[in-house]
Amino acid sequence: MTSRPFLAVIQYDGGGFAGWQRQPVDRTVQAEFEAVLERLMGRKTPATAAGRTDTGVHALGQAVSFAGGDRWQSVDLRRALNGLLPREMWVQQVHLMNPGFDARRSAMARRYRYLIGTDEAASSPFRRPYEWALSQALDVNALQGAAAALVGEHSFRGLAAAGANTTHYRCRVALAQWAPRADGVGMAFTVEADRFLHHMVRFIVGTMVDIALGRRPPADFPRQLAANDNLAASPPAPPQGLYLEAVQYSPDLYAEESTS
């Protein structure tokens, strides 16, 4: 059987998963997705994600690559996946890709969003699983000042998990900005970079929020950005406020139009 590379853009509620990556015991997004692929393809079919989201982290645009048989068309494959995946997961698009495509290695940029609820109702059971229920006002100027320092290339050794399995800590940040949420009940942080380290966004947000609450001076952020370790970083922000929003690829990797 001839196999062709496909890209699935999927959304998932991360609250019921121990992250993307398959685990020996815990339920993961990868294990659920690969189980459905095995049913559809008639064989074990590995799936590669652009970002290995952690326990409790959500996705609005996770990119997943896998090999599919040549009998599958993108529109039919999307319909079949959505018919079998658990309700916490949904395939937004399926693309047929050109040979050599890999969701992780081929990615040009990844974009994350972090949501914070600053009002009292953030503690509602209908909101708390999907944002940081901070329920405190934040100094917007302090947040924006810290975000501006992120743009460019930096070593994020001071704002990532210690012992991260990586050959280097440098990342190029193209976008980092805070804005009031459209629903008017908090703040949203958007950050886009060529790569992200383990817990990097959560460490960034946790440190920024401490500055915006007056718990540490604004000068701490550029110092932490230049640090050689994360010992002085604030605790990472909770996982439920974090969303993998989108992954960007070169247009010449797509063999056909999307099937959304």
Q: How would you describe the shape?
A: globular
Query: How is the main sheet built?
Result: 10 strands, mixed
How many structural domains? 2
What's the name of the CATH homologous superfamily of the largest domain?
Answer: Pseudouridine synthase I, catalytic domain, C-terminal subdomain
CATH class of the largest domain, named Alpha Beta
Mean pLDDT: 95
Question: What's the CATH architecture of the largest domain?
Answer: 2-Layer Sandwich
Low-confidence stretches: none
The CATH topology name of the largest domain reads Alpha-Beta Plaits
User: Hey, roughly how much beta strand do the residues contain?
Assistant: 25-35%
> What's the count of strands?
10
Describe this structure in a few short sentences.
With 260 residues, the chain is an alpha+beta fold.
Features:
ten-stranded mixed β-sheet, alpha+beta, Alpha-Beta Plaits, 260 residues, 2 domains
